[in-house]
Design brief:
The complex is a heterodimer of chains A (241) and B (123).
Chain A lengths: L3 E2 L2 E2 L2 E7 L2 E6 L5 E3 L5 E3 L14 E4 H7 L4 E3 L5 E3 L2 E3 L10 H6 L27 E6 L4 E5 H6 L3 E6 L2 E7 L6 E5 L5 E4 L2 E4 L4 E3 L2 E3 L5 E2 L5 E6 H7 L4 E2 L3
Parallel strand pairs in A: 12-22
Antiparallel strand pairs in A: 1-2, 3-4, 4-5, 5-6, 9-10, 11-12, 11-21, 13-14, 14-15, 16-17, 17-18, 18-19, 19-20
Chain B lengths: L9 H4 L1 H4 L9 H5 L22 E2 L7 E2 L4 E2 H6 L8 E6 L4 E5 H7 L1 E6 L2 E6 L1
Parallel strand pairs in B: 2-6
Antiparallel strand pairs in B: 4-5, 6-7
The chains are: A mainly beta (241), B alpha+beta (123).
């Protein structure tokens, strides 16, 4: 996102919840903003948008360097974990990744009661807390349930905005992702996604049949729970139904 | 106490980072530390937006104000990250940029300037 409005830099913070999703506020006008779409929701800047919104792709360091060996990193003073060690100094490990990483996610957890009053009218087509991949273009908003991606072997081709799009679960990180490619079928083998045009997606990078790295364009996407995507994009398409 | 949801096998790799991917969870302790309610303007609202459903978190999350970046490869070689450390990758006008997922679970927002342009990432 671009935090400039009418050419002037604004400063944003996370101030609360709406629709079970965190809400941003700029310090200059106190306007509330949607953190997924960048759209102003409440306040004097309603009608403005912080676009273009860019993808925030989830991966690990090795994949990030495979994507771009000149990748930069920004590290704050906040505690984090790497290679089994605790680094950083600010905050408490429990508020970040350590506690959750040690115990793993609770398979029986439900949405916190604090979130529920912030929800709007929910879309009952899918379970509230289901995980999936949400993608959107100018005209299309579509949700791919994880189970539908798995049912198709973890990788398949679809159409999005008139283009061929690969929908897959990354074999290394198990996160779903979407990438525009010129192919008609895909399958997961040996930790990579193989396309019928003999290209492969390895560590999130597209290579042609000769092993040459290709520029990969990705649609706007987010790994999300159903409620979040459905409330952000009411009436969105659901793949397979 | 953390509020957690089921991620199944995904939890093994990237579950922690997903906990807040869409604001699906907050550290419940955060709500106990509420000390600075958000100042709200008196509208207007986007059509369909209901301010009564907004829940203030007291301003406990601090945006990461990015002042400097460094090569990820160098940081890896120095042992400050590992190959399997989860990151969130965005693109600025200057370069591709990785943010540490563990840290963004707290910050939620990062802002900076690169290549002569301001940027912001929300997680």
């Amino acid at each position: 996102m671009v935090p400039d409005i009418d050419g002037k830099l604004h400063h944003f913070s996370n101030v609360g919840l709406y629709d079970g999703l965190f809400v941003m506020q700029d310090g200059e006008t106190k306007t509330l903003w949607n953190h997924i779409t960048g759209e102003a929701m409440y306040g004097p800047l309603v009608g403005h948008n912080l676009g273009p919104v860019r993808n925030l792709l989830q991966m690990h360091v090795k994949q990030a360097l495979a994507m771009d060996s000149k990748m930069q990193v920004a590290i704050s003073d906040r505690i984090y974990f790497a290679g089994g060690r605790q680094l950083g100094s600010a905050g408490s490990p429990g508020a970040g990744g350590a506690a959750s990483r040690a115990s793993g996610p609770n398979p029986n957890a439900e949405m916190s009661a604090r979130f529920i009053p912030t929800l709007g009218k929910e879309d009952p087509r899918r379970p509230r807390m289901e995980l999936g991949l949400g993608v959107w273009t100018g005209a299309t908003r579509r949700y791919y349930p994880m189970e539908r991606i798995r049912e198709r072997g973890g990788a398949f081709m679809d159409q999005l905005g008139g283009r061929q799009v690969l929908i897959y679960i990354d074999p290394e990180t198990y996160t779903p992702a979407a990438m525009f490619v010129n192919a008609s079928s895909a399958k997961v083998e040996d930790n990579e996604v193989r396309l019928n045009n003999r290209s492969v997606v390895r560590s999130g990078v597209l290579f042609d049949h000769g092993g040459k790295r290709q520029t990969a364009e990705r649609p706007q996407q987010v790994f999300t729970r159903w409620y979040g995507f459905a409330l952000t994009f009411p009436g969105c398409e659901v793949f397979g139904q | 106490m953390l509020t957690r949801h089921s991620f199944g096998r995904f939890g093994k790799a990237l579950g922690p980072m997903l906990m807040l991917a869409l604001g699906a969870s907050y550290a419940a302790v955060a709500f106990a530390q509420v000390n600075a309610p958000a100042q709200l303007p008196n509208g207007p609202a986007k059509p369909g937006f209901d301010i009564a459903r907004f829940s203030d978190n007291g301003g406990i999350f601090k945006t990461f104000n990015v002042q400097q970046t460094e090569p990820l490869q160098k940081v890896l070689e120095e042992g400050r990250v590992a190959g399997d450390t989860p990151v969130l990758v965005t693109e600025t006008a200057g370069s591709k940029l990785a943010l540490l997922t563990d840290q963004m679970v707290f910050h939620h927002l990062a802002q900076g300037r690169a290549g002569g342009k301001d940027w912001m990432a929300a997680f």
